Amino acid sequence: CVGEGVRAVRDLKALYPHKIVLADAKIADAGKILSRMCFEANADWVTVICCADINTAKGALDVAKEFNGDVQIELTGYWTWEQAQQWRDAGIQQVVYHRSRDAQAAGVAWGEADITAIKRLSDMGFKVTVTGGLALEDLPLFKGIPIHVFIAGRSIRDAESPVEAARQFKRSIAQLWG
């Protein structure tokens, strides 16, 4: 399972050597071992799941530094502001604020609590990636927040014209964030 993911990372990086490749491993344990596998496959970034022990995140970050890579903490499910401070104290610079697919399926939309949390994470010094069923019309909700990355996979993949959908996202981001 991990081997196939690592192979995909290696193949993507070979095809797109100048693009950032994220190994979305959501590492929960064995941070050094699993992140090393990803970075040796030429990943630029790896994800560690928010419920992982702080030492898992630290281990992954140590390996990331060896490869001039980075670690994103994937904020899926339950996490605390105390944990967020521990991640900052450990040197973690990136988080992924993730609205779960199951929440989306249950009708949960982006709301004020999400925006408040994202602003607070940014104020703590994190580079924040936002993902989870993002639609083009959601982007203005985040205006004024220095979002590092938007992940809009399904909105682009499932569009009638994925190329045009990607262009629309790019235009909207340029208009909202300059």
Automatic annotation (TrEMBL):
It comes from the Bacteria. GO terms for molecular function: 3-dehydro-L-gulonate-6-phosphate decarboxylase activity; orotidine-5'-phosphate decarboxylase activity. GO terms for biological process: 'de novo' pyrimidine nucleobase biosynthetic process; L-ascorbic acid catabolic process. CDD domains: KGPDC_HPS (cd04726). Its EC number is 4.1.1.85. It catalyses: 3-dehydro-L-gulonate 6-phosphate + H(+) = L-xylulose 5-phosphate + CO2. Keywords: Carbohydrate metabolism, Decarboxylase, Lyase. Residues 3-169 form the Orotidine 5'-phosphate decarboxylase domain. The keyword Cell membrane does not apply. SMART domains: OMPdecase. It holds the Pfam family OMPdecase. Belongs to the HPS/KGPDC family. KGPDC subfamily. PANTHER family: 3-KETO-L-GULONATE-6-PHOSPHATE DECARBOXYLASE SGBH-RELATED. This is 3-dehydro-L-gulonate-6-phosphate decarboxylase. It comes from Salmonella enterica subsp. enterica serovar Wilhelmsburg. The gene is ulaD.
